[in-house]
Design a protein that fits this description.
The structure holds two protein chains of two kinds. Chain A contains nine helices and seven strands; from the N terminus they run H-H-H-H-H-H-E-H-E-E-H-E-E-H-E-E. Chain A is of the alpha+beta class. Chain A has two domains: 157 residues, no CATH class; 180 residues, Histidine kinase-like ATPase, C-terminal domain (Heat Shock Protein 90, 2-Layer Sandwich), CATH 3.30.565. In chain A, the strands form two sheets. Chain A has a five-stranded mixed β-sheet, with helices on one face. In chain B, 31% of the residues lie in helices and 35% in strands. In chain B, helix 2 packs parallel to helix 3 and helix 3 runs antiparallel to helix 6. Chain B is elongated and about 70 Å long. Classes of the chains: A alpha+beta, B alpha/beta. The interface between A and B is medium-sized, with 26 and 21 residues.
């Protein structure tokens, strides 16, 4: 693509110069020149023209056709055509005069014809390039539009897949299978909880925001499912200032935090793990704090980055610059603090 | 072959144990001799009962399923892994023809697994190291070493280890919490340790670089490593070269 004069998309361009070369040869033959002379001059005329014309593609890129700059483009096309063709004709005259192959009158007449032909060819060449360029642009535009659509779809798919965590799904189903035999009422309750969870997951993609009270209900529901699995190994505590409950909240923002707490805390620790959720009011901020223990000798603790990056991004996009999310992990404790400016409470 | 298969069930979730026990209970030819809720209990139960078969959960706190296998005598033990979802595990199991059950599983699937166990008794379980490596491509090196002494199991985080020295068929592992013997060759243990942190300084010893206090020249061409806990270990010529490369 970049090695212009050799590029494969230029093959039709070079082919188009063949009739031109034939035409110039015929013209010279008609003026009573010998065949050898006509062919040589024609080649000397067409080859550099074609090469320079190929380079003119850069000019098309540098001077794209835009309405307000049409005059500049046209005049520079004309000027460069004149200049290049002029130089060629000048050299032609000079060489023939010095070699005294023809009379000055013959030379001048042929040179003028070739000069005009050169200008015309140059302008046609540029037109050709502009056409190719325009076609290319249309193709690229279509392609990038497709790309954008595909990316959007992928993002949605990723989100959905992340929401349906297979570990969670299959382990929960296994709990249901176990409960059906031993405690059918509990099995029924578990199925209802699972249905609630998946309904919320599907709805989360459509809702921009929900009251924090709803978000907390979803979280309680999720932790309730995990509690069936882990029994006494999971302890949930919650202390939320009622003033926070009306806060508009991006749905399921807390979900990944709870999943991490289960994955790195509860499931890799033999001792009971406490998940604590507190909501308090500070003079400037409403503060939500998610806190859990983890086994230091178990799985490596979640880093303060990767897994939570998406949560952070979503939180900051929703609440703006004055909101802050901080993550601390040390001494077997993991804590995420979410600070939202108080005026958000209305 | 004995008439009834003896089996041990290992899962950290109570409901999962209960479900498995309930389904296995429908097969009179299988007798469950123990149910364990963690890896420590599992090692103890397998060592005590010497069962024919173990249903083994992979992800468990403190000691995972692979570590359990590492610590027990597997020569006459058939293993059926039980897992909810683990894409790597499934690939590894298929590759090594190890049987597994996916939670939740049906009675029929369990029957198939049992038939397979009976047909092909000790089932050619590959080395645990090999299985673990296929299974956890992102955890190339051990983060902890598990050791069993009788029924007691200790878990030593690799960062606490100071040195590992070969003693006959065993490796003596010294750490901040004392020293223990593990039945393994030093060469195979070396393979599972992070080479950036652990160096083989001699044919029979590996040290943790972070626990190295200094290197002393005892006489010409004879160096000794002095570790933070005061232990002195001879360094071979090749070992000295390796140390120099790592310490720059």
């Amino acid at each position: 693509m970049e090695r212009t004069w050799l590029s494969r998309n230029l093959v039709p361009y070079y082919l188009a110069w063949i009739p031109m070369a034939v035409m110039v040869t015929m013209l010279l033959l008609n003026r009573g020149n010998g065949p050898a002379f006509s062919i040589i001059v024609s080649l000397l005329f067409c080859l550099p023209m074609a090469a320079v014309g190929a380079g003119a593609r850069f000019m098309c890129r540098a001077l794209p056709l835009k309405r307000q700059r049409m005059a500049i483009v046209l005049s520079s096309v004309l000027v460069s055509g004149l200049v290049f063709s002029g130089i060629w004709a000048g050299l032609f005259v000079l060489v023939l005069r010095l070699s005294r192959l023809r009379t000055p009158a013959q030379i001048d007449a042929t040179a003028l014809e070739l000069f005009l032909l050169g200008v015309a060819a140059f302008i046609f060449t540029l037109l050709y390039h502009y056409l190719v360029e325009a076609a290319e642009q249309v193709r690229r535009a279509l392609h990038s539009e497709d790309e954008a659509r595909v990316q959007l779809g992928m993002a949605q798919l990723r989100a959905l897949r992340a929401q349906v965590n297979p570990h969670f799904l299959f382990n929960s189903l296994n709990s249901v299978a176990a409960l059906i035999g031993s405690d059918p009422a509990a099995a029924r309750e578990m199925v209802v909880r699972l249905a609630t969870f998946f309904r919320a997951t599907i709805a989360a993609g459509r809702q921009e925001s929900i009251p924090l009270s709803d978000e907390l209900a979803l979280l309680r529901n999720y932790l309730g499912i995990e509690k069936v699995r882990f029994d006494q190994r999971l302890v949930v505590e919650e202390e939320i200032d009622p003033a926070l409950l009306n806060l508009q909240w991006p749905p399921l923002l807390l979900q990944p935090l709870a999943e991490n707490a289960v994955k790195y805390g509860v499931s890799s620790s033999a001792e009971p793990v406490r998940i604590t959720l507190t909501g308090t009011l500070e003079p400037e901020h409403a503060v939500l704090c998610f806190h859990n223990g983890f086994d230091r000798d178990g799985l490596p603790a979640p880093g303060t980055g990767t897994g939570l990056a998406a949560t952070r991004e979503r939180f900051e996009r929703f609440f703006g610059e004055r909101a802050a999310m901080t993550v601390e992990a040390d001494h077997g404790e993991f804590r995420v603090t979410l600070r939202v400016q108080r005026e958000r409470l209305k | 072959m004995k008439d009834a298969l003896t089996a041990v069930i290992v899962d950290d979730e109570k409901l999962a144990r209960q479900y498995l026990a309930e389904l296995v209970g429908e097969f009179p030819e299988v007798r469950v001799v123990a149910t364990c809720s963690d890896g420590f209990e599992a090692v103890k139960a397998i060592t005590e009962h010497g069962p024919d078969l173990v249903f083994l959960d992979i992800q468990m706190p403190r000691l995972d399923g692979f570590e359990v296998l590492e610590l027990v005598d597997r020569s006459a033990l058939a293993v059926v892994f039980v897992t909810a979802y683990d894409q790597y595990a499934l690939k590894a199991f298929d590759a090594h023809a190890v049987d597994y059950l996916l939670k939740p599983f049906s009675r029929e699937r369990l029957a198939l697994a049992l038939a397979k166990v009976r047909r092909n008794f000790t089932g050619g379980l590959p080395g645990v190291d090999q299985l673990r490596r296929t299974l956890r491509p992102d955890e190339k090196y051990l983060s902890r070493i598990v050791v069993r002494d009788g029924a007691a199991v200790s878990v030593i985080p690799c960062r606490d280890v100071t040195s590992l020295c070969a003693e006959d068929d065993y490796v003596n592992i010294r750490s901040s919490s004392g020293s223990v013997l593990k039945h393994q060759t030093i060469a195979s243990l070396e393979e599972s340790l992070d080479p950036e942190k652990f160096v083989r300084i001699h044919r029979g010893s590996i040290i943790n670089l972070e626990k190295l206090a200094r290197i002393e020249l005892v006489e010409r061409d004879h160096y000794e490593a002095v570790l933070l806990d005061g232990q002195q270990l001879r360094i071979s010529r090749a070992g000295h070269q390796r140390l120099r490369e790592l310490l720059g």
